[in-house]
Design a protein that fits this description.
single chain; 16 strands; mainly beta; 2 helices; Porin; twelve-stranded antiparallel barrel
């Protein structure tokens, strides 16, 4: 674990050096706090993994949103869930948000056999909660790059018997660096935690892994015309210990509750999302995740309603 942490620190240091070397070619930051927040959010939302621009308010104060998502996973087929989110920005640097997904419809593979001789039957379940996520986020924008850090806590409100919760309190630390060039924002993320569900909460995969792990992402955000935002990443989730507890609703190689090696929990692939503002209060989003390691495809779309419209904050 220490060697992985050292590698993460080296990567962060190299990134800062690279950003410093290109500082002269970049744009100067806006002068006011409000312009700075708007520029940061226009290039890439504070929380592209959580949802579209506006979920975290740009000005100091409260916002609430409601997201309805339909997605198809090759492992568990169709699911439909709703996710209410509440958020509060204390100042230009700090914000706090909380969300809890509710699965209105989901296909689940249940073990009707024994742990020694598992037999999985497919069934449809309704009205199942996922784990609650609480996140404290910090934004910092020096001249050379933008930084977003988060500390997330997972509260075990989810139905872990159906593989929708970790069954314990979980955590994640994430560091997001990016450098904006006009509409393009190259970005990299380095994080460490003990669950997969806090890494990319916009994508609800058909499994929950619990145990020490590091996660990495690299890619870009791109601001398209009419306020549309495209985000594309490559990612790696790497377990740091062999005694990884693992639960799943999916089928295939990840049908285990306790792993004796790190293989079943590792994941890597491609992740992308596109946010299309339909009105100041309403955003249509599409997303796609390709797990190269598992050979699994997950695609879907969501509609997000903001109580506090984005246009009223700019």
């Amino acid at each position: 674990m220490d060697s992985v942490r050292r590698q993460m620190l080296r990567l962060a240091a190299l990134l800062v050096i690279a950003l410093s070397a290109t500082g002269a070619a970049g744009q100067a930051p806006p002068s006011s706090d409000m312009e700075l927040l708007n520029a940061l959010s226009a290039a890439a939302p504070d929380t592209p993994d959580l949802g579209p621009l506006g979920i975290i308010p740009l000005q100091r104060g409260f916002n609430a949103s409601f997201m309805t998502t339909s997605q198809h996973d090759a492992a568990s087929e169709w699911s439909w869930l709703v996710t209410p989110v509440i958020a509060y920005r204390f100042n230009r640097h700090f914000s706090l948000d909380a969300s809890t997904p509710l699965y209105l419809y989901i296909g689940i593979f249940q073990n009707v056999g024994t742990s020694a001789r598992p037999v999985y039957n497919y069934s449809i379940d309704h009205a199942l909660w996922g784990d609650t996520q609480l996140s404290l986020r910090h934004n910092w924008s020096p001249r050379l790059f933008d930084y977003s850090g988060s500390v997330s806590l997972g509260v075990p409100s989810g139905n872990d018997a159906r593989g929708l919760g970790a069954g314990q309190v979980t955590y994640d630390f994430n560091n997001h660096f990016e450098r904006r060039f006009w509409r393009l924002s190259p970005e990299i993320e380095l994080g460490e935690g003990n669950t997969s569900t806090l890494v990319d909460p916009r994508i609800r995969k058909s499994y929950v892994s619990v145990g020490p792990m590091a996660h990495f992402q690299a890619g870009f955000g791109f601001l398209l015309p009419h306020g549309m935002v495209l985000d594309a990443q490559v990612y790696e989730q790497l377990p740091l210990a062999k005694d990884l507890v693992y639960s799943t609703t999916g089928k295939g190689k990840k049908k285990v509750t306790t792993a004796t090696n790190i293989g079943p929990a590792e994941d890597n692939g491609l992740l992308s999302s596109l946010d299309i503002p339909m009105s100041p209060h309403l955003t249509l989003s599409g997303f796609y995740n390709r797990s190269i390691r598992d050979g699994d495809d997950l695609t879907g779309f969501s509609i997000t309603y903001l109580l506090r419209a984005v246009s009223s904050e700019k």
